[in-house]
Structures are given as C-alpha cells and as structure tokens.
Amino acid sequence: MNEIEIMVNGAPRRVPGPATAADLLRHLGLDPRTVVVELNRQIIRRPQLSDIALAEGDAVELVHFVGGG
Amino acid sequence: MTTVHAAPATDSPLTIGNRAFRSRLMVGTGKYRNNGDMVRALEASGAEIVTVAVRRVDLDRTKDEGILYHLSPDQYFLLANTAGCYTADEAVRYARLAREAGFNEFVKLEVIGDRETLLPDTEGLLTAARVLAGEGFKVLAYTNDDLITALRLEDAGCAAVMPLASPIGSGLGLLNPYGIRTIKRRLSVPVIVDAGVGTASDACLTMEQGVDGILMNTALAEARDPVAMATAMRLAVEAGRQAFLAGRMPKREVAMPSTPNAGMLE
User: Fold this and answer.
1) Distance (Å, rounded) from C-alpha B58 to C-alpha B62?
2) CATH classification of the domain holding A47
3) Which domain holds residue A44?
4) ipTM value of the model?
5) Residue-wise pLDDT tens for chain B (266 aa)?
6) What SS3 class is residue B128?
7) Which of B57, B97, B214, B220 to mutate to test the interface with A (most CBs of A within 10 A)?
8) Whole-prediction pTM value?
9) Is A68 domain-assigned?
10) Alpha carbons B81 and B84: distance in angstroms, whole number
11) Which class in CATH covers the domain with range B19-56+66-246?
12) Helix (H) or strand (E) holding B228
C-alpha cells in the first residue's frame, strides 16, 4: 500500500494513500461530527470531507471544542 | 390570614442578536478539577450560555477529551471563544473554525495584547470585530473598561460588548464601577461584564451597575466547592439585577431617622 506524508496538527504523519479528508478521520478514529478539518488553512465543510483528496505535504489541522472561559 | 407572595420587579429577557435568554449569568467550562464538578456547577448556575474553546484534537490520547462528551448542545447555548489569540487574523481563523464546529454564529471574540495581564489588544479587536460582523457572526467582544473602545465595537457591528471587571482569572472584582456604568449608559447593545468576578458580592455589585449580564469561569472552577459557588453566583446575579431594577435609595452624608420624632414624650 502507498503512503503519503502530511502534517497533522503540526507533526509529520504517514498515512495510507491515496486518501480523502474523510479517510484521514477514519484512519485516526475520529468522529467527523465532532471535529473540524482545516486543509492548508481552508476549512473543509463536513459534506465535502469525502470529496477532498489529500496530497503529499498537505498541512491538516483537526480541531474540536474543549473547555474554556 | 393573607399569604404574601414575593413580587420580583418585572424584567425582560436578555436579548443578544435576536436570541432571548432567561439567565443573566453565563459561565465558562475551563479549569475545573474534573468534568463531574463542571457539569454540576453549570447546572447549579442556571446558565443557558456556556463558553467553549477551539483547540487541536490530541491525537496521542486514546480517549477523546472533547467537551461535547460532557455537555449537551441541546441543554446549553454554546458560545465559542477565541481565547489565546494575539492577532486579529488568528482570532478570525479561530472564529471561523468555531462556527464550523458549532451550532450557532455567535463568537466571544478575544484578541489579547499582553501575556501577563491578558488585557485586550483593542486595535486587533476592532479589526477582527469588523471582519467577523461583516461575515454574519454575532460578535460578543471581550474588551477593557474603556468607553471609546466599547463605542467603536458597537459601531463595528458587535452584538454585545463585554468589558472586564478586572483581569481574566484575577478574581479582583469590579475595579471600575464608574467605567462599567458609563459603558452601559452609552451603548445600545447588551453589556455583559466578562472576567474578574471572584465571589458573590462581586457579582451582585456588578449587576447593581445595571449591566445586562456577567460571564465568569475561574470564580466557579477554582472555588473549593464549585457547585455551591455556582448557586451563590446565580443568587447574587439575580439579587443584583433585582436591586438595580428596584432602584436604590440615595446615599447621604448624614443620618436620617427611620423612626418618627413626632409623638415623643415631653
């Protein structure tokens, strides 16, 4: 199986490729309903997660809500 | 025998950006010793609006620590903040992520200017407020007790302005009642005091200035008993609000007897 190297939350990570943003969430065991995906500083809306392919060197941020004031 | 019913002064709901809220107390969800304390304190506070923050998912942990595992978005109105942002661009980025993650277009905008005091960078704040209001966000802007900045935030299209009582997490209470009263008197949008309230008397005194509400976090999270303090804060906010609506007696430099002088014996 091929792999691609991308940056996820600031750290390099090798993931099976080709992969969409939805594949990445599945690979990491994350629920797309509770996570927001930013790809190269562009937000990917939830309905598009399966349409957006990740490429070598992409910078992905995965964020969610935590406690705060 | 007649029964005497409590007759609180009639109050209208707190309306922010076309949404009406019963509770004038808003609470944060940070820094609690554990999630059980937080959930019970939130309940005891009677708050409808609770703040949350946007952060990276911790990919090294097996258990998901997202706040939504503990809070139901059906039970609370989640208000995302931009805490930790030091530039307008950064705050706008966080606000957009929050809107995507969240359930509404409200954002508690913070643009911090100094790491020691966490006082706001008012220039960055105004820039970010204009951008976000232009994108349809309902912006609640955390600011200092300066009238001119508050007026400019209102002009920028903010749905509410949130001047501080004292620095975030300081618990120093209401340092500038005059400044807060002036902001409230001059603005048309709701004024919610955010940060610095340490205990119930601070909350009561703040509400007595006539502001529309209070947002607090550390006062509950760092209390020895957060649930009991949340109850105290709920009562204090209600008491302060009722006292404001009731209209206090004037202050005098001399005594005035409460008992009539007429009818004294010769």
Assistant:
1) 9
2) 3.10.20.30
3) 3-63
4) 0.93
5) 556 666 667 889 999 999 999 999 999 999 999 999 999 999 999 999 999 999 999 888 756 578 888 888 889 999 999 999 999 999 999 999 999 987 799 999 999 999 999 999 999 999 999 999 999 999 999 999 999 999 999 999 999 999 999 999 999 999 999 999 999 999 999 999 999 999 999 999 999 999 999 999 999 999 999 999 999 999 999 999 999 999 999 999 999 999 998 999 98
6) helix
7) B57
8) 0.90
9) no
10) 9
11) alpha beta
12) helix B226-246
